[in-house]
């Protein structure tokens, strides 16, 4: 009985983690709009692969429902997704403009000359670059 409880908790935890990864991939795919089509395609493939793994594991009631082949395919899919996300992040870091990275809700970037004093209370919430 204890082994069944551990298995059930492990599956529930795995489903929860995959749900979080699935949601992150959906945001990644949506955020890729406006980037080159190859980058959008990669984000879409990642999302699709993770959704497939999530759907497979969501149907399982125990590890006995999952064959070795399904587990191996799921592991490969998640590994490919991780590599694709790494490539996506590298591409964005090298090619995307700063406003795309920080988004519309980030504080404004404000530059100040090195020698001018800045009254910080006036700029609460802003990031200063080159401030003294």
From TrEMBL:
SUPFAM superfamilies for the chain: Mannose-6-phosphate receptor binding protein 1 (Tip47), C-terminal domain
GO CC term, one of those recorded: cytosol
GO biological process: lipid storage; positive regulation of triglyceride storage
Top-rank taxon: Eukaryota
Location in the cell: Lipid droplet
Spans traversing the lipid bilayer: none
One of the Pfam families matching this protein, by short name: Perilipin
Keyword Acetylation in record: no
Keywords recorded for this protein, A-Z: Lipid droplet
Family of this protein: Belongs to the perilipin family.
Protein name: PLIN3 protein
Species the sequence originates in: Asarcornis scutulata
UniProt lineage: Eukaryota, Metazoa, Chordata, Craniata, Vertebrata
């Amino acid at each position: 009985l204890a082994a069944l409880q551990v298995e059930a908790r492990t599956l529930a935890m795995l489903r929860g983690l995959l749900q979080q990864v699935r949601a992150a991939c959906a945001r990644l795919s949506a955020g890729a709009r406006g980037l080159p089509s190859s980058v959008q395609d990669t984000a879409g493939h990642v999302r699709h692969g993770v959704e497939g793994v999530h759907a497979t594991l969501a149907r399982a009631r125990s590890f006995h429902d999952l064959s070795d082949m399904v587990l191996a395919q799921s592991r490969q899919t998640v590994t490919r997704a991780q590599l694709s996300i790494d490539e996506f992040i590298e591409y964005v870091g090298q090619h995307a403009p700063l406003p795309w990275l920080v988004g519309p809700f980030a504080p404004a970037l404000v530059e100040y000359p090195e020698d001018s004093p800045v009254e910080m209370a006036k700029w609460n919430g802003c990031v200063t670059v080159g401030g003294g």
